[in-house]
Amino acid sequence: MPVLSEILSSIKTHGSVYFCDKLEPPWEMIEKMEYSAAFHYVRRGRCWISFAGENYLLGPGDLVFIGRGDDHVISSSKPSETENIYDEHTHLLCGYFSFRDPIPSPLDEAMPPILVLRSDEIAELSWLKTTLEHLSSEYDSQTPGAMVVVNKLTEVVLVELIRFHINKLDSHNFV
Fold it and tell me: What is the spatial distance between Cα 135 and Cα 113, in angstroms, rounded to a whole number?
């Protein structure tokens, strides 16, 4: 796949983590995107993500990628529910990607507006799972140089997500 390698090496991006913490219900994060793309990784617990009129339940080990800078809401309960029936805390890792190239970003055509990876899919992608866990640990550590490592690992997450999506498309084309 030399073409994919060329595309990946041509993407000029900066990424980092902007949130990694435990949340106790009820909670809601309204994400007004200031970046080209974002991801949310559920380390523990569960949460709902509302995106473009759809609701997705995310559990432990699930990851969602939001492309194209679209606004979304992450919360402890489904938006249509008035009562929160889930009372355990959720531990989230949230990151972003910004691109140095002018809009549209290089991902606009290559990636869907939302990509949900379930924990069983991530378990099969050992590199991605290890990277997400290491990213979380580095961010939590706040040791000297930790943010440099966090930024680099966030860029690796982007490459892994693109590779996952391209491989998924290829496998569907052969079915």
Answer: 23
